[in-house]
Amino acid sequence: MKAQKIWSDYRLTFYALDEKARMEFPYVETIPAGFPSPADDFMETPLDISRLLIRNPSSTFFARVAGNSMEDVGIGDGDILVIDKSLLPAEGRIAVCYVDGEFTVKRLHFENDVCYLVPANPRYKPIKVTEENNFIIWGIVTYVIKSLL
Questions:
Q1: pLDDT tens digits along 5-58
Q2: 59: nearest Cα among 83, 81, 93, 80
Q3: Which residues does the annotation mark as catalytic?
Q4: What domains lie within the chain, and their CATH numbers?
């Protein structure tokens, strides 16, 4: 799976997927978090990461996160988001939004015909979207890829 950088600002860097590129990796179906199971040793099947993470290749993009406004839902600085532009916005979904010239990642909340972009960090306040805002829900976050190192 190859991705090409297509746009960047100080909050997000966007990448587009090369749909023709496929990479398979060895894959073990389950790894117990309790006691090890010797019977499962060496049971591998190939895994194509792009097929696992991407439902709609032509409308899927990646973005690297800068900041910590979504850390309480496991999205942190440096994480990579898998974003599907073909999915419809809905209550509670995490979305990449374009507000007044800047991208942001927030949870969608709809109340009385008003959209709020809700952070997952108490140090940040929700953003109330009004008719005066230049606002687009750019895509829905489907996965977060993070480093544990």
A1: 666 776 777 777 666 666 555 555 555 666 665 555 555 667 677 777 888 888
A2: 83
A3: 69, 106
A4: 2-20+48-145 (2.10.109.10)
